[in-house]
Amino acid sequence: MSNKLTQGWDKLQARSSLMLLIVAAVIIEVMAVVQYVFARDGIRNEVEQRARTEIKLKNLEIQNVISDVEVAINNMQWLIDWAASNPDSIYSTLQLIIHNNPIITGCAMAFEPNYFPSKGEWYEPFAGRSNGLTGDIVHRQIGSAEHDYHKATWYREGLHSTEGQWTEPYPDDAGSKMMVSSYTLPIHDRNGKVIGVFCSDVSLEWLAELFGSQAGAYTFLTSRTGRLLACPDKSMVMTTTIQEVAKQFKDTMIDVVNANMLAGDSGDASVKDNDGQKNYMYYAPVEGKTGWKMAIIFPDKEIYAGLHSVGKRLTIFMILGLLLMAYIMWRTFRGHKRLATVNAEKERIGSELRIASGIQMGMLPKTFPPYPDLDELAMFGSLVPAKEVGGDLYDFYVRDRKLFFCVGDVSGKGVPASLVMAVTRSLFRTVSAHTESPEQVMTQMNNAMSEMNESSMFVTLFIGVLDLHSGALAYSNAGHCPPVVITGGSVIPIEMDANIPVGLMPDWQYSLQSTHIDSGSTIFIYTDGLTEAENAEHQQYGEERMNSTLAEVGNKSPREVVAAMTDSVHAFVAGAEQSDDLTMLAIQFIKNIDV
Fold first, then answer.
1. Strand 402-410 vs strand 104-111: parallel, antiparallel, or unpaired?
2. Which helix or strand (DSSP H or E) is residue 29 part of?
3. Model pTM?
4. Which of 270, 376, 405, 527 to pair with 398, CA 20 to 30 A apart?
5. Exposed, middle or buried, 195 (CB in 10 Å: 0-12/13-18/19+)?
6. Domain of 198?
7. Of the residues 185, 205, 225, the one at which a domain ends
8. How many Å apart are CA 571 and CA 78, to the nearest integer?
């Protein structure tokens, strides 16, 4: 009887263990499916965000080039009309336009038949560079019976337009000798009558570098009529239209996408190729008068290739885990195994955070002095994050004997703030490369970050441009702490306009301010992690202590200024835990350079 009870108990234990193992297996499978779905959605959202950001950045880069040409030519409309009434000055005017606008490869003034009787029926003075964008400027008359520009679409449309417009890209065999898109304006005589068309050519070769294959995706650009202007397959450029490409697909959704693109709409769609593979497509028009459209395509199998690979490995690991769980249940070591797994996961997270911190700090300038050959400039910067990764940033570079610099503070802390910090630093480099006006840089960065700011994070930011010839400082502030100028024993705050932080509201017009930095003076820029540093009694360091310390430092080197401030704030907090990122940047303008 006792033996039967023992056998029954053993069977009950075996069944209980088996049921526990089955329940555990079902739970693990359900968790795996849930994790897979969330991971897939997360990857899709990341791809979508990446696509929209990529399109916005490319749109901005194209607009910088297009706007430069439009503004330059529109501003010289009076000179063009004047030259038409003074034929001896036509070539010198054309050469002047080419010389002042490096992006323009060639320009011409095409006149109505026999407008100048001595010049004949076709008179089209042209000036351009002898070798694309790098050769000397030459001029010649290119109008002829063989090159009858009167029949050209750009000429006919230009005669009847009331403002400048961009042509459909075309191969310019007579003038610039390359594939171009032209910005045209009607030419008027002294009485306001249209007597011809002014044409400025812009080479399309720069688009090939902007659009091409990327990791797991490819982008392309089309003209107003759908002709491919740039794509990874260069053999299709200007020889193929998106309508012709669409004929190779069985999925009719591609026709809808093409129609939307040609109509100037933006959006996204899922399109299957002839092998049944899904592709995600995001498209938008290029802002302005060109009529161009751009798109970026992500193949589904490449987007989720890593996830599928990980899924297969996870399946194998789950099977092994179940076997291990059975073994652990039998050996009663389940608790120890779980503890080991938790410790390994904590170590992995810690390792990833350390790597992330190294990557973030590697984005900041850390070689000082940064420009040993510039006698008129001395700099030193410091950033101490409160956590493994933080949201403070500083950056600078020299272009055209001007120092472009910024200091910013992202709202929040940790990994989200570090991601916004990286985006802010990249936008500063990209936008400031095309303009010297700090308020325009701030405005464009704000528009870009506001449109993609789904997490409602923002950045207080100070952007400055210091002329190393004269000491003139142009700056724009977005809710950041006012920098100070150290002159001798005096500490003078820089006057600041009230502006909102970057990323809160699109289309905010930031103000431009300026001042003069005397030789030997030091600009000190910081984040609120300095003035709001707290000691154990929760007292803040404050601006008064900061200014007092800076006054004692006087005209010492930027490295000594930052070191003195660091020692001062450390002495004040006396070992209390750091609650916010601490960033300082000191810029000393040593002497003026004669212009």
1. unpaired
2. helix 2-75
3. 0.45
4. 527
5. buried
6. 76-205
7. 205
8. 65
